[in-house]
TrEMBL record, chain A:
<keyword id="KW-1133">Transmembrane helix</keyword>
<dbReference type="InterPro" id="IPR042524">
    <property type="entry name" value="Presenilin_C"/>
</dbReference>
<keyword id="KW-0333">Golgi apparatus</keyword>
<dbReference type="GO" id="GO:0005938">
    <property type="term" value="C:cell cortex"/>
</dbReference>
<dbReference type="GO" id="GO:0030426">
    <property type="term" value="C:growth cone"/>
</dbReference>
<feature type="compositionally biased region" description="Polar residues">
    <location>
        <begin position="50"/>
        <end position="59"/>
    </location>
</feature>
<dbReference type="GO" id="GO:0045296">
    <property type="term" value="F:cadherin binding"/>
</dbReference>
<dbReference type="GO" id="GO:0005790">
    <property type="term" value="C:smooth endoplasmic reticulum"/>
</dbReference>
<dbReference type="GO" id="GO:0043011">
    <property type="term" value="P:myeloid dendritic cell differentiation"/>
</dbReference>
<dbReference type="GO" id="GO:0015031">
    <property type="term" value="P:protein transport"/>
</dbReference>
<feature type="compositionally biased region" description="Polar residues">
    <location>
        <begin position="12"/>
        <end position="30"/>
    </location>
</feature>
<dbReference type="GO" id="GO:0005739">
    <property type="term" value="C:mitochondrion"/>
</dbReference>
<dbReference type="GO" id="GO:0060828">
    <property type="term" value="P:regulation of canonical Wnt signaling pathway"/>
</dbReference>
<comment type="similarity">
    <text>Belongs to the peptidase A22A family.</text>
</comment>
<dbReference type="GO" id="GO:0021795">
    <property type="term" value="P:cerebral cortex cell migration"/>
</dbReference>
<feature type="region of interest" description="Disordered">
    <location>
        <begin position="305"/>
        <end position="377"/>
    </location>
</feature>
<dbReference type="GO" id="GO:0035556">
    <property type="term" value="P:intracellular signal transduction"/>
</dbReference>
C-alpha cells in the first residue's frame, strides 16, 4: 500500500501552465497584439482615406488608444479571474484537510512511518534527530526524482499504456482504499454505526464515478471535485506518516526541486511539458487540475496520421474536458441520428465535413474568437501543488502551538504565493513551478507565526488587549 | 451552551465583515485578490511587531505584561505603516486604467485589514468557547467572550473606515487626516487596556466607531441629503426611468449610460453628475465601497 501510494506524488508535483497557444487558440497577449495590429491597419487605411476625405485623424488615434486601454483592463480583469479560479479549489482542498485534521484524530496519531522515511525521529539528542530527518528527506527526494525521470522517459518513448496503467492503479488506490479508510475513521470519530454492505455500495459508487470522471469524461465540476478530494486524501496520508522535521525539510527541498525541474532546460518536468507541446497533446488529466473546459478548436485534426495515432493512444487525447472527439469521430455518428442526416441532406444537399474542409474553415481568420477566448481559456495547476499546499497547512494546524493563527497565516501566505506565481505566469507565459514561492512564504510564516506571533497574541488575548 | 456561544460570538464578531464581503467584494475577482493582498500586508506588520516585542522582552529580561502596552503601540504604528505600503501598491496598480476606482480599493484595503485582524483576534477564542470550560473561574470577568466579540466587530468596522480615510488623506496629501487615523487607532488600542472595565472601554470604542464611520462617509462624499434621497428613491435619472425600481434599496440605482465615471485621483465632490439620482447613487454606493 505504502509503495504505490508514494508513486503518485512524484509526478504530480507539477507545474502551473496556461493552455498553450496552438495554431488556433491564442492567449491574451496575442489577442491584444492582433487587435492592435488590426487597429493599426485600420488606422493606416483611415489615414489613406483621410487624405481624400479630409477627415481628422485624432479621433481614430483615440479609438486605438481606447482599445489598448480596454485590452489592459481586460487583461487585468481576466488575470484576477484566473487567480480566483485557482484560489477556490486550493482553498477548498485546504479546508477539507484542516477540517479533517481538527476533527478526526486518526490523522494526527503516530502509527509508524512510510518505508521511504525509515529513520525515526524519536531520538535522544537533537543532533541525531536532525540527522535522521535530513536522511529521510534525502531518501524521499531521490525516490521522487527517480520516479519523475522514469515518467518522463516513459512519456518520451511513447509507452502510454504503461503510464496509463500506472495512473489507473494509483487512482484506484486513492479512490477506493484511501477513501474507505477515511470514511471508516470519520464514522469512528462521530460514532456512527454502519454496516459493510452500505459502505461497500458507497465506496463502489464513489470510486467508479471518480475513475470515470478523472480518466474519461464527466462534468467539469465533478471532475474538479474528485481531483480536490484525491489531493486532500493524499495530503492527509503525508501528514499522518511523515514525522515533523522530515515533513518541513521535504517541503523545502521539494520546492527547490520543483524550481529546478521546471525551469532548467534539462529538467524532467520541463521536458515533459515541451514534449507534450511538440506532440500537441494534453498532459494526463489525472495529474492536472484544469479550471475550464478545454475547447480545443483543433481537436478535429486535419492530419489523418495523427488521428490514427490518437486512436491508439487512449490516455492523452481523452482529456475529459474535450468535447469533440476525433478518435471516435469515425466510430459513432456524433449524436446526429440517421433521420437528422437525411433531413439535412434533403435541405442542403449531401455535404460531409471532411478533414480538408474543416481545416479550411479553421484557417479563416477568426476574429470573433478573441472576444470569448479569455473567458474560455483557463489555467491549470498540477495536483502535486494542491497536495503540498495542503500538507503545509495541515501540518501547521496539526502541530502548531499557535493553532488557528498559524493555520490562517500559512493559508494567506500560500494564496499570496499562488497569486505572485500567476502574475509571473501572465508575464512569462510558459510553464512555471507553482511550489517555490508559496511554500517559501508558507514556511516563513509558519515558523515566524509559531515562534514570534503566537506568544505575543497569546499575551494580548490573555489581558484582552487589542492592537 | 458551547456551540451556542460559538455561533453567537462568531456572528457578532464576523457577521458584518462577512456581509460586507459577500455583498460587495465576492463578485469581483480583482477585489478578492486585493483583499488577500491587504491581509498579507497586515500579517507582515504583525510579524514585525511580534519580532520587536520578543526582542524587547528578551533584552529587558522581564516576562510580565509591562511591555505589552509598548508592544501594542508598536504594532499599531507598524500596521499603519503597512497600510501606507498597501496604499502605495494600490496607487501603483491603479494608474488610471484599472476598472476599479481608488476609493473602492481603499474600502477593500480597509476591509481586508479589518477581517484579518478580527479573525486573528477572535478565532482562538472561538475555538476555546466550544468548551469544555468555565468562563472567569479565577475571578476574571464572565463576559469575556461576548465583549471580545463586540470589540472585534468594532475593530473590523474601524479598520474599514480607517482604510477609506487613510487613502483619501494620502491622495489629498493631508497630514492631518493621516495623523487622526493613527491617533484614533492608538486611542482604540489604548482603550482596550482598560478591560475588564467594559463601560470605559467598550462604550467609548463604539462611539469612536460611529464617529469614524460618519467621517469616512463624508470623506467618500456622502451627506445626509444623499442618504435621504437614496432612501426615498427619488431623482431617478432619465436613462433609468425605463426600468422600474423594484426595490427601495439603492442597488437599483445603477450608473446609467450617461453617467461620468468619477475622475480617478480627484475628490468625488468635484465631478458633475448627469442627474441628481446618479450623484446620489454613486456617492452612496461609493461611500460604502460598492
Amino acid at each position: 500500500m505504502t509503495e504505490l501510494s508514494a508513486h503518485l506524488p512524484q509526478f504530480q508535483h507539477g507545474q502551473l501552465t496556461e493552455n498553450f497557444p496552438d495554431t488556433h487558440l491564442s492567449n491574451t497577449n496575442d489577442n491584444s497584439e492582433r487587435r492592435r495590429h488590426d487597429n493599426s491597419e485600420r488606422r493606416r487605411n483611415d489615414n489613406a482615406e483621410s487624405e481624400t476625405n479630409g477627415q481628422p485623424q485624432s479621433n481614430v488615434q483615440q479609438v486605438v488608444e481606447q482599445d489598448e486601454e480596454e485590452d489592459e483592463e481586460l487583461t487585468l480583469k481576466y488575470g484576477a479571474k484566473h487567480v480566483i479560479m485557482l484560489f477556490v479549489p486550493v482553498t477548498l482542498c485546504m479546508v477539507v484537510v484542516v477540517a479533517t485534521i481538527k476533527s478526526v484524530s486518526f490523522y494526527t496519531r503516530k502509527d509508524g512511518q512510510l518505508i521511504y522515511t525509515p529513520f525515526t525521529e524519536d531520538t535522544e539528542t537533537v543532533g541525531q534527530r536532525a540527522l535522521n530527518s535530513i536522511l529521510n528527506a534525502a531518501i524521499m527526494i531521490s525516490v521522487i526524482i527517480v520516479m519523475t525521470i522514469l515518467l518522463v522517459v516513459l512519456y518520451k518513448y511513447r509507452c502510454y499504456k504503461v503510464i496509463h496503467g500506472w495512473l489507473i492503479i494509483s487512482s484506484l488506490l486513492l479512490l477506493f482504499f484511501f477513501s474507505f479508510i477515511y470514511l471508516g475513521e470519520v464514522f469512528k470519530t462521530y460514532n456512527v454505526a454502519m454496516d459493510y454492505i452500505t459502505v461497500a455500495l458507497m465506496i463502489w459508487n464513489f470510486g467508479v464515478v471518480g475513475m470515470i470522471c478523472i480518466h474519461w469524461k464527466g462534468p467539469l465540476r465533478l471532475q474538479q471535485a474528485y481531483l480536490i478530494m484525491i489531493s486532500a486524501l493524499m495530503a492527509l496520508v503525508f501528514i499522518k506518516y511523515l514525522p515533523e522535521w522530515t515533513a518541513w525539510l521535504i517541503l523545502a527541498v521539494i520546492s527547490v526541486y520543483d524550481l529546478i525541474a521546471v525551469l532548467c532546460p534539462k529538467g524532467p518536468l520541463r521536458m515533459l511539458v515541451e514534449t507534450a507541446q511538440e506532440r500537441n497533446e494534453t498532459l494526463f488529466p489525472a495529474l492536472i487540475y484544469s479550471s475550464t473546459m478545454i475547447w480545443l478548436v483543433n481537436m478535429a485534426e486535419e492530419d489523418p496520421e495523427a488521428q490514427r495515432k490518437s486512436k491508439n493512444s487512449t490516455s492523452d487525447k481523452q482529456a475529459p474536458a474535450s468535447r469533440t472527439q476525433n478518435e471516435d469521430a469515425e466510430a459513432d455518428d456524433g449524436g446526429f441520428s440517421q433521420e437528422w442526416q437525411q433531413q439535412r441532406d434533403n435541405r442542403i444537399g449531401p455535404i460531409e465535413s471532411t478533414p480538408e474542409s474543416r481545416a479550411a474553415v479553421q484557417a479563416l481568420p477568426s476574429n470573433s474568437q478573441t472576444s470569448e477566448d479569455p473567458e474560455e481559456r483557463g489555467v491549470k495547476l498540477g495536483l502535486g501543488d494542491f497536495i503540498f499546499y495542503s500538507v503545509l497547512v495541515g501540518k501547521a494546524s496539526a502541530t502548531a502551538s499557535g493553532d488557528w493563527n498559524t493555520t490562517l497565516a500559512c493559508f494567506v501566505a500560500i494564496l499570496i504565493g499562488l497569486c505572485l506565481t500567476l502574475l509571473l505566469l501572465a508575464i512569462f507565459k510558459k510553464a512555471l513551478p507553482a511550489l517555490p514561492i508559496s511554500i517559501t512564504f508558507g514556511l516563513v510564516f509558519y515558523f515566524a507565526t509559531d515562534n514570534l506571533v503566537q506568544p505575543f497574541m497569546d499575551q494580548l488575548a490573555f489581558h484582552q488587549f487589542y492592537i | 451552551m458551547g456551540a451556542a456561544v460559538l455561533l453567537g460570538c462568531a456572528a457578532i464578531a464576523l457577521g458584518p465583515a462577512a456581509a460586507l464581503l459577500l455583498l460587495t467584494v465576492a463578485a469581483e475577482p480583482l477585489l478578492l485578490v486585493l483583499l488577500v493582498a491587504g491581509a498579507f500586508f497586515w500579517l507582515l506588520s504583525l510579524l514585525a511587531a511580534s519580532l520587536l516585542w520578543s526582542v524587547w522582552v528578551r533584552l529587558s529580561g522581564r516576562e510580565d505584561a509591562a511591555l505589552l502596552p509598548l508592544g501594542a503601540a508598536g504594532a499599531v504604528l507598524l500596521q499603519e505603516l503597512c497600510r501606507k505600503a498597501d496604499e502605495g501598491l494600490a496607487t501603483l496598480s491603479e494608474d488610471g486604467r484599472s476598472p476599479i476606482s481608488l476609493r473602492r480599493m481603499a474600502y477593500v484595503s480597509g476591509l481586508s485589514f479589518g477581517i484579518i485582524s478580527g479573525v486573528f483576534s477572535i478565532t482562538n477564542i472561538l475555538a476555546d468557547s466550544v468548551g469544555p470550560g468555565t468562563v472567569g473561574i479565577h475571578g476574571d470577568s464572565q463576559y469575556y467572550f461576548i465583549t471580545s466579540a463586540f470589540l472585534t466587530m468594532a475593530l473590523v468596522l474601524l479598520h474599514t473606515f480607517w482604510g477609506i480615510i487613510f487613502f483619501d488623506a494620502c491622495e489629498r496629501r493631508r497630514a492631518g487626516g493621516l495623523g487622526l487615523v493613527v491617533g484614533s487607532h492608538l486611542l482604540t488600542s489604548g482603550l482596550t487596556f482598560l478591560n475588564p472595565w467594559y463601560e470605559a472601554s467598550l462604550g467609548p470604542i463604539f462611539i469612536l466607531t460611529l464617529c469614524t464611520g460618519l467621517w469616512a462617509f463624508s470623506t467618500a462624499g456622502g451627506s445626509f441629503r444623499n442618504v435621504l434621497k437614496c432612501l426615498s428613491c427619488k431623482g431617478v435619472s432619465r436613462s433609468l426611468r425605463a426600468r422600474p425600481c423594484s426595490t427601495r434599496r439603492c442597488r437599483c440605482l445603477r450608473r446609467g449610460e450617461g453617467a461620468m465615471a468619477p475622475q480617478l485621483g480627484t475628490p468625488a465632490k468635484a465631478f458633475t453628475p448627469t442627474a441628481p439620482g446618479e450623484f446620489v447613487s454613486v456617492q452612496f454606493l461609493g461611500a460604502f465601497g460598492v
